[in-house]
Amino acid sequence: MAKSLNIGMIGYGFMGRAHSNGYRRVSNFFDLEYQPVLKAACARNEDAIKKFAATWGYESTETDWRKLVERKDIDAIDVCVPNNLHKEICLAAAANNKMILCEKPLAMNVAEGEEMCQAVEKAGVANTVWYNYRRIPAVTFAKQLIDQGKLGRIFHYRANFLQDWTISAELPQGGNGLWRLDAAAAGSGVTGDLLAHCIDTAIWLIGGVQNVSAMTETFIKERTHTETGKVQKVTIDDACSFLCRFNNGALGLFESTRYARGHKALYTLEVNGEHASLKWDLHDLHRLQWFDHRDEGNMRGWRSIHVTDSDHPYMNHWWVPGLQIGYEHSFVHQVADFCESLAKGTPCGPTFRDALETQKVCDAVLDSAKSGQWINV
Amino acid sequence: MAKSLNIGMIGYGFMGRAHSNGYRRVSNFFDLEYQPVLKAACARNEDAIKKFAATWGYESTETDWRKLVERKDIDAIDVCVPNNLHKEICLAAAANNKMILCEKPLAMNVAEGEEMCQAVEKAGVANTVWYNYRRIPAVTFAKQLIDQGKLGRIFHYRANFLQDWTISAELPQGGNGLWRLDAAAAGSGVTGDLLAHCIDTAIWLIGGVQNVSAMTETFIKERTHTETGKVQKVTIDDACSFLCRFNNGALGLFESTRYARGHKALYTLEVNGEHASLKWDLHDLHRLQWFDHRDEGNMRGWRSIHVTDSDHPYMNHWWVPGLQIGYEHSFVHQVADFCESLAKGTPCGPTFRDALETQKVCDAVLDSAKSGQWINV
Amino acid sequence: MAKSLNIGMIGYGFMGRAHSNGYRRVSNFFDLEYQPVLKAACARNEDAIKKFAATWGYESTETDWRKLVERKDIDAIDVCVPNNLHKEICLAAAANNKMILCEKPLAMNVAEGEEMCQAVEKAGVANTVWYNYRRIPAVTFAKQLIDQGKLGRIFHYRANFLQDWTISAELPQGGNGLWRLDAAAAGSGVTGDLLAHCIDTAIWLIGGVQNVSAMTETFIKERTHTETGKVQKVTIDDACSFLCRFNNGALGLFESTRYARGHKALYTLEVNGEHASLKWDLHDLHRLQWFDHRDEGNMRGWRSIHVTDSDHPYMNHWWVPGLQIGYEHSFVHQVADFCESLAKGTPCGPTFRDALETQKVCDAVLDSAKSGQWINV
Amino acid sequence: MAKSLNIGMIGYGFMGRAHSNGYRRVSNFFDLEYQPVLKAACARNEDAIKKFAATWGYESTETDWRKLVERKDIDAIDVCVPNNLHKEICLAAAANNKMILCEKPLAMNVAEGEEMCQAVEKAGVANTVWYNYRRIPAVTFAKQLIDQGKLGRIFHYRANFLQDWTISAELPQGGNGLWRLDAAAAGSGVTGDLLAHCIDTAIWLIGGVQNVSAMTETFIKERTHTETGKVQKVTIDDACSFLCRFNNGALGLFESTRYARGHKALYTLEVNGEHASLKWDLHDLHRLQWFDHRDEGNMRGWRSIHVTDSDHPYMNHWWVPGLQIGYEHSFVHQVADFCESLAKGTPCGPTFRDALETQKVCDAVLDSAKSGQWINV
Questions:
Q1: What is the pLDDT tens value at each position of chain B, 377 positions in all?
Q2: Are B195 and B163 in contact (CB under 8 A)?
Q3: What backbone phi and psi angles, to 5 degrees, belong to C204?
Q4: Which distant-in-sequence residues (6+ apart) come within 8 Å of D40 by Cβ?
Q5: Cβ of C261 and B272 within 8 Å?
Q6: How far is residue B290's CA from residue B138's CA, in Å, rounded to a whole number?
């Protein structure tokens, strides 16, 4: 008989939907000891949260997150609100002995993140951060190949996260859905929103970053703010690139922007090793590109692996070879892994502590962009 | 307040899961007047169907489909069993005034199919056949472009459905999951299983087929039968290709096989028109390839359209641009369209009658392969 | 010291240039016993042929091919004129003991071709037909892989040759450059022009064709003829598709058209074998796609082999890995192989006799399209 | 009647062949006032240069370049020797009033380059540097599109040049063909060899670079030197990446390495503008990827333009649409443009002065990598 994992969800935006879908679907595809139950959804806007709860089947609603984190019938709090609210909610949740599943990035900065780590560690509660791309099967497969040593010594790592949705100067900043353009709510622009994903994956795949040299730009300097109705200075970074050295001696190159026409959400990564290289991109997320120097000399070539077989990560839970799954499944996988970790009593990465490493790189990147110096992480 | 649509599912295999997922998810993403309710699941194997019902949340189970189709609390019967059982169940379901959602192909042959059409039409019950590929957003988008006249006069249509899972001579025929290799259960091999999909889409996109010249082959002549344990003659077609002429004057070329190494489930289609061409394939199902001769002369090229924007078919119900959905979503879309048709009182294509057209082409193809003659459909 | 191979070229169109380039360049890149010398160029239009000779460095010109084939200082005749002139010229050249390099297709039909074969065989002169695609390095490499048995038993062969340059009804037929639209000069339309290439490669790669079922179409029924100035019936096939069975039991599917928008000269081929499959297309002619089932299970994928390494066919004569050569190089390779065969005293395929096999398939295809019957080759 | 342009070639390696091929072929495909004549080839190794001259049809040979630059019958000197010899030869050639076509990079550093610029400018001789990639038709086409304003304001430029041929620690440094691994002969490693190409194209396409932050690495610290036979410190950069800001406000990201498994010579570039983006890569050099935001909303996609039509740059000189040319043709184009500039009395870019701009960026990159600071160009 499965045990319940009662979820209290805070927020109802894009990520609120993605996580809810993860909770609802997991038991149809994974045979788990713990089964998530959508116990309560919370947001200040009562009408909105009631509608959201009805759509997703949450049993109840709250309009004050403080009440939610105190409810006895809640086991885990899911934090799907703008970044500037993460710390306060997490500290309160930890104080109430709730497990926490927090949206990325962990915090506004390293100082906040450190406080949050200490809180969950002190409380001894299970915690994880939704860096969901680790659990795209092709990316998880890349991790397996690297861990098996198939690449040998790593020379290069490069990643991009390119978008084009903010090019129009008419787009306002702030408010619903557009808080990502407001540094007060988001902490930073593409650095925390997009590069954080790239950094999390990189650290997971090949280890920590030693130092960085970065450059940022804000192409559109002023935009109307939806809350004040006034034209205000844009405080986020529209684009950010950085060079880095990894602890293992590999060189890294990262870039993110929301000004690259033609790229909707193109997260790409490539790793070059002594024996083999691999590549992946989010626009065709079900494929892993693989080049192996050990193949017969004149028959070497980049292989396009369609990661849909039952011996690929997570794929034995879905359909048959050749039939692709999508973006949302990465959240189902994270829920499945969280439930499994719970049963085993092990951490479910990335934990808050893991995510703090990514936060450190982000902070170093922003420092470097400001100072024009190489910064140690 | 949404109205319930009580589903009675017969079968629990690959398609049983895919349809169940469609019913369960639709209301999280589509705002519909009718909401499917998983009322009962039915199969002869009691343990298996109970486990299936528990996983998917069916309220009850049956082991005799005749009981199921008579239950008053069931609105619609979903037929997910081998092809040789379609007719009998559908006739009984229609006789009990149940709506029917039947797996493809409609029937073992045209004669059966005609009987089934008459049954549902006489009963006046809503009916549809699960030719799900129509509802992959990129394919639906192709339909819109053709209907808008963007291609002009159509010259060519070509489609392949290539797989490689039966190449090993060790693979047995018959029984659970392998009934597709047994003509007694399946009616035919790749013709009814794979080409039927290609034909359904083709007719939907550019209209009916006039005549065909076909060729079939069974590469492995004998296989062990899982039910008898004996080596028996293989009765299905392992591969089938055919030429055809469409009613609109276009030329068609179709091929299907389970002996094409490297192709897991590669359904591809291409349409060449006077002004433009389009291509699609199932291994990257979220993309539509588009070539437009009306583009500026030296800037013409095949466009790879990432069909993930909110103004692409169905996509406003899912995530944000650039984030792809998968195979299973085509079933969610078919459920959504079925519910919507119900609300409007219109048919939900492909109806049994639509699917009978595909059956006619399949029968003509098999006749042509046998006789070596061109056969009129 | 290299021996001279004195060339007498008849014609100065597209192929006249391509062959001339082959003769001029070969000695810069290949170390050969025989070196082609551009001795004479011939055409009825004196101004045109003098200009052509000046551009390419031919030592002399003729306006009557009968004179050319009788010249003592000519070793080999290159036939680059419309198909309806091939036979007469080749018979005369053979009678004068000239070697012959003849443009494809060999002849207007099998009867002509048989006569030509007998003429060169009786004369005992070296002969070859310019089915140049055999000598694209990626295609030659495919041949090596098949001959090494890496594919095992062959199940399927498919090839397309798709173009779109005759869609406009305004395009005239006949005359300079457009004789390919006139059956009196060309023999047939896409069948002899494009499918002949596909058939030659197929026979070379996997062996002969047993029987065919074909379909042709002429989409634009009438066009102005450039010579008469009148609107006349179009006598060629605009499109042709056929099914076939190979002698080795493999199934074949071929299609060619000049009505496929977006395809300039897209010759594609794919071979599916028991262990592996390969694909190639002319629009990216320096790549061979390769799938090997013997690769480690979950790491299988189509490899895109960039055929530019020194251990790829012909490539040790060119640049460094990664730097692609083009279409014209296939003619250089054929000249090199012809010279080498000459030194060794072996035939240089495809000989007239080899090319007659392709002619037989073309004739069977046209017969089948007319009769609606399967035709044995 | 064409005028002769008498070439004196110094060197006979990879570039010696590529340039010679350019000179020999240009008149077959371009109708020019000046026609190159292969007058003399020069190298210290007499046997080698005689063999080279015989292969390519040079009329004479020299073993001392000082003699060559003084010969009255030579119009232009082509410098195809290691970088450390460029300056001395160019100064002498200019002093003798010879035109100069110099291999890239221009010089060992900016100081040398400045001296060379002054020499040719003082002598008033035509001069050009073989940054050949500008004349790949797809790249030239990109230039036209940018110059027409089709991209609007430029936000991002990124380029990579990735190779993998020096990964083995067994590979020696120095000597024939391997002087590129010896800083004494090459000046630098990938920076001058590969990044210089990327920088030249970038400046040509979108203008000058303002400042840079760079990082270099030498992965294999010691290699046997072919001249001394001893294991010596490797003095070149194996890899180099840099961030930059262009004068027009765009952000740049460049990377080059010889340690990226799977990439033979993968030069890629991408430009993101307000209205459109474009991409190109050397492994499929006949294609330009184009994305235009002004296309109809839901039909936007990256177009793969097959740059082989007669209205594409240079392509009216070659074959027919769909038939690709290769790497070597870029040199033919540069010869054609040089001859045409000569006839018109205009400079043929990149001139020495143009190439000095690239040299300045290279020097700044190396300085930045050493100092860890942002460096103004």
A1: 689 999 999 999 999 999 999 999 999 999 999 999 999 999 999 999 999 999 999 999 999 999 999 999 999 999 999 999 999 999 999 999 999 999 999 999 999 999 999 999 999 999 999 999 999 999 999 999 999 999 999 999 999 999 999 999 999 988 766 888 888 888 899 999 999 999 999 999 999 999 999 999 999 999 999 888 899 999 999 999 999 999 999 999 999 999 999 999 999 999 999 999 999 999 999 999 999 999 999 999 999 999 999 999 999 999 999 999 999 999 999 999 999 999 999 999 999 999 999 999 999 999 999 999 999 99
A2: no
A3: -60, -40
A4: D7, D8, D9, D53, D58, D59, D60, D61, D62, D68, D71, D73, D74
A5: yes
A6: 11
Cβ A191 vs Cβ A180: under 8 Å: no
Residue where the block lists tokens 């840079």 = D212
Interface test with B, best of A264, A288, A304 (most B CBs within 10 A): A264
Measured CA to CA in angstroms, residue C245 lies from B216, B236, C252, C355, D183 at distances of 10, 19, 6, 19, 61
Length of chain C in terms of residues written: 377
Pick the closest to residue D23 from D85, D92, D76, D81 (CA basis): D76
The one-letter code for the residue type at A124 is G
A257: chain D residues, CB-CB within 8 Å = 155-156, 251, 272
3-state SS of C77-112?
EEECCCHHHHHHHHHHHHHCCCEEEECCCCCCCHHH
In this structure, is the dihedral angle defined by the CA atoms of residues A358, A283, A289 and B331, taken in order, positive or negative? positive
Cβ atoms within 10 A of the Cβ of A248, count? Answer: 13
CB B221 within 8 A of CB B234: yes
Euclidean distance between CA atoms C100 and C167, whole angstroms: 35
- The complex scores an ipTM of 0.96
DSSP H/E element including D292:
strand D287-292
Phi, psi of D75 (to 5 degrees): -95, -35
Mutation choice for B interface testing from D280, D287, D294, D299 by most B CBs within 10 A:
D299
Residue B307 vs residues A92, A109, A221, B290, B320: alpha-carbon distances, Å: 42, 36, 32, 12, 11
Contact between A326 and B329 using a beta-carbon 8 Å cutoff: yes
| Phi, psi of A232, deg, nearest 5 | -130, 160
User: Among partner residues D308, D325, D328, which is closest to C264 by beta-carbon distance?
Assistant: D308
The answer to whether C309 and C321 have CB atoms below 8 angstroms apart is yes
Rounded (to 5) percent helix, strand, coil in chain A: 40, 25, 35
Domains detected in chain A: 3-131 (3.40.50.720), 133-376 (3.30.360.10)
